[in-house]
Structure formats: structure tokens, C-alpha cells
UniProtKB/TrEMBL annotation:
It comes from the Bacteria. InterPro entries: ABC_transp_permease. The gene is rbsC_4. This is Ribose transport system permease protein RbsC. It comes from Aquimixticola soesokkakensis. The keyword Transmembrane helix applies.
Amino acid sequence: MTDTSFMGQKNMTSERAGSRLKSTLFNEFSWIWGGTTALFIICAIVAPGVVRPAAISSMLPFAAILAITAVGMTIVIQMRGLDMSLPGAMTIAGLLFAKIGFMTGSTLLAVPLTLAIAIGIGIVNGLLVAKVNITPIVVTLATNAILLGAVRSVSGGSPMSAPKELEAFSHSTLLGVPMTLVLAVLFIVAISVITKRTIAGRRFVAVGANPAAATAAGIPVLRYQVATYALATMCFAVAGMLYTGFIGSASQTAGNDYLLPAIAAVVVGGTPFSGGRGSVIASGVAALFITLLGQMVLALGAGTSVQLLVQALAIIVAVSVRYLPELFQALRR
């Protein structure tokens, strides 16, 4: 082999490595890391109280709860759906956990029973979407209405106190890190590894990207679609139980403030509604971004309406940023 051909191969290898690095660092899911870092810097300038250790410590549990809901919403959107039953599922899970915990006197029994009910709700959603071919938003809106009715029936119109064990767990820390954040990270890492590194995960992505092609390839599409909604509802239920424990009571409106932020976190994180592609890690970081953004707006004296407006603008900016590389390429041509 001549020196010229050797150098040529070496240059090609370097170019491929550089291309892979560039695609990893500058893709639709990676910008949220820089955006979150920039937001921390902006907060340190315009609202320094938001980034003080005590403020961050009190913010992280809520960001973690939002991240868990965003994980569930991400996998549904990867399956070309949208789960609007999040508020009802999150609220009823908190109430059921509190009620079952007090009735049985065992939180260890209340957790699996509540999760089993949540998974059952998700399976019904998935079957109606995949088997009956009803639009996901219609199915999940109807489910949410039913669940909110069940909330009124279970609660009797008044909040319920959270079991002390759940309250202690939600406020506990592991090496100084809130336990809710630890649980959120475990959720994110587990689902990310499954979807990126396993055969089942690759099939899940294939079903979301093109159900017809996945069916032709022999993949059990129905099974994956139903399992997606079951897993998403389980995520919402876990978030609802953690929220109940953190605030100390199971209210009738626990999940109402999490639907738009969860969808916003998915969109800001870069997961498209076209299905298939997605990143639960980016959605988790975006949940921190959304929570910090809300805290900054409130610290500056703005009301809830302005906070919602800022969230909407963040979604628009995130969607616009996603197409900037294509715009730059078009301008170069």
C-alpha cells in the first residue's frame, strides 16, 4: 500500500469520524443541552435567586415529576399518538394510592395495585387506538373525562391525605439528590437503553416510523402499540403518586398543570410528531428547561398567563431551531 493511498484512507476515516461526531453534537435532540445551560446563565443574570442552591433543590422534585410524565408522552408521540388522559391518570393514581394505602394499611400493596390499574387503563387506550382505529386524541380525551369522573367519585369532592410512607419517600434524598430525581433518571435511562439498544426497542421505533412496513416485516404491531399506551399511563401514575407524596395530599386537580408542560417538554426536546424518532433523554432535559423557565418568569413578577405564553414561545422557538441546519444548507446552495 502506497503512502498516498494510506493517507487517503486515513483522511476518509477522519472525515467519517468527524461527520459522526458532528451528527451527535449538532442534531435535533442535542441543542436542548446548550439551551438549558444558556437558560441557567440568563437566570443567574436576571433572576439570581432562581439558581441558588436552595431554590434549585426545591425545584428539582417538580422537574423530575414533569420529566417522568414527559417520558410517557415521548413514547406515545414516537408511536404517532398523543395521550390527553395524562391529567386524569395522574390524578386518579394519587387518589387510588392514598385510598388503597389507608384501606389496606400497606403502601407496599398500594403501589402495585395502583400501577396495575394504570396499566389496565393504558391497555384500553391502546386497544381502542390500534384495534378499533379511533384517533388517539379522541380516545384519550374520552378516557380523561371518565377518569376525572372517577376522581370525583373516589375523592368524594375533597382532598385525601397522603400516606406518611409515601410522603417520606417523596421528600427523601440519596447522597443529597432528591429521590424523585433519582427515580426520574432511572426511568429515563431504562427506557432510553431499551429503545436504543434492544431488538424490542428497534422494533418499537420501526412501528412508530411506519406501521405498514413493520407489519410487512412480521413485527407484531398491535402488541407494541398497546404496550406503548400501557407504559405511558404507568409513567403518569408514578408521577401522580410522587406528586401526591411531595405535596402531602391527593387533590382532584393534581394532573391539570402537567399536560401542556409535558407536551412542551417533548417538543422542545426535539421529538417530532411524525413518529419513530425520539429521545427520552432530551425530553427529560427539556423538562428541567421548562421548569426553570417557569420559575424565572414567576421570579420576574409575571403571572400564570405570561408563563403559559412563554411556554408557547419556547415551543415555537424549539420547532424553528430544528429546521435551522436545513435552512443553512439551502442558503449555501
